[in-house]
Each structure stands twice: as C-alpha cells, then as structure tokens.
Amino acid sequence: MQRYLVPPSCFVGDTAVLRGEDAHHIARVMRMVPGDRVEVGDGSGTVWTAVIESVGAGEVHLSLEDSLEEDGEARLELVLLQGLPKHDKMDLIVQKATELGVARVIPVAAARSVVRYQEDQEIRRLQRWRRIAKEAAEQAKRSRIPEIVQPVSAAEAWRWAAQADVALIFDESRRGRPLATALAGHPGVGRIFFAVGPEGGWDPGEVDDATSLGVEPVHLGPRILRTETAGIAAAAAILYHYGEWGR
Asked: What is its EC number (predicted)?
C-alpha cells in the first residue's frame, strides 16, 4: 500500500487533505480513485490507513481508518555528520541513509569539501535533500522523516557530536580502533553520531579538534571507501551491531 508522510497541518479530526506533489502523485502517477486505500502519516511517528474520499484539482481528501503499529524506525538515534561531497553525491547519501534508518543528516562544510554553495543555492539544495528524504522514508515504510539540517562548520559539528552517547569520526588514515571494536565497548546506547569526511577525508586538524571533544576516531578496515559509500556502509554496520537487522 502506498505511503504518504505529510505535515501535521494536513490533518483535521479523522480526515486528511493532501496537496501539491502528494496529490499529483495519487491522481496522475498512481491514478487512484475514490475508494482506494493508502497509508498516511504525520512524519513524526503516527501512521493510519485511509480511504480516498475525493480526488480533485490539486487536492485529495482522505478519511482516516486505523492507526498502524509501526516498527520501521530504529531503536537507536543514528545521526550522520557528512562532509559535503562534490556534484550530486549528497542526493544518494541522503536517500540511502534514510532507507537504512538514519534519524538526522548534518552536512558539514569541511576543509577538504570542494563544493561551496551561495545562499540561494544552499536553500535549493536543502529543499531538494529534504524532498529526497521524504520520498525515501515513504518508500522504506518509515513513520518518521529524517531531519536534514543546514550545512554547518566542522567546529559546530563536533559540538553537536559531543552531546551523543557515542560519537565516532571515520579516519581513512586508520588512526583509532576498528569500528567493531569501538562499538563493543558500548553495549547499550540511545544516540550515536558518526562523521564521514568528504573526498580526501577529514583534515588532520579536524580529526584532532573532534577527538579533543571526545569524538573517537575509528576505521572500517584496510580498504578506502568513497565518501558516498562510507556513510552507507558505516550506518549498516552500526545498525547490524545493535540488532536492527532481522529484529
């Protein structure tokens, strides 16, 4: 059943009204008609089955039925600090991180990040990443849309990470412990931040600054992964370690 995650303002009592791209998708892409059923959620954890009551010009009216017992969210809060990569690699990173269950993606303007956005470009990019996260969350049957925040500096990123139960920075020079060894020392956690550098990795000074605030350097082994691969691999490994695969 097709799932749509929409703002809470779309809900009134036991009804919901979908507009914009969601309404277009129902009417023009899926070609649904009154009587068809969908799943609709508020993006913050609650999802209902719903019956389409009407399909109009730019609006689809739904009647809510039963709320669903959801298990599409990870039991731990996983936050990716991603050094800004070139081109459209961030699109892929946001999409796959969302599918895996990451709760938040924080783009980091690192020393070795080649890309630098002007303010208007940054707004458009952020809107695009949030749209990608929404679509990926719906496809993956998640009940929450990950938060995609505005790009921050490396110094600000480390201050965010210092608030976590576990904070890790992946260092391709293989300083620090293997990921599996580091995680073994934290059998029960609620929030994990993990930082993946851009092309070329983190600058050594950035790693030093992070470790001075309690962020632990780790590595994924002898192979050097591309930035768009490393975050996905790390997220999958962390979720597997804490029992999120097959639970």
From this structure: 2.1.1.193
pTM: 0.92
* 8 A C-beta contact, residue 159 and residue 60: no
CATH code: domain of residue 197: 3.40.1280.10
In CATH, what number is assigned to the domain containing residue 34?
Answer: 2.40.240.20
Residues of the chain with pLDDT under 50: none
Determine the angle formed by the axes of helices 119-139 and 89-100, rounding to 10 degrees: 30
How far is the C-alpha of 27 from the C-alpha of 29, rounded, in Å? 6
Give the range of the structural domain holding residue 63, as residue numbers without chain letter. Answer: 3-67
Contact 81, 195 (CB under 8 A): yes
In a domain, 161, yes or no: yes
Contacts 24+ apart (CB under 8 A), 157-161: 157/81, 157/106, 157/108, 157/195, 158/209, 158/210, 158/213, 158/215, 159/213, 160/79, 160/81, 160/106, 160/193, 161/81, 161/193, 161/195, 161/210, 161/213, 161/215
pLDDT the model gives residue 247: 60
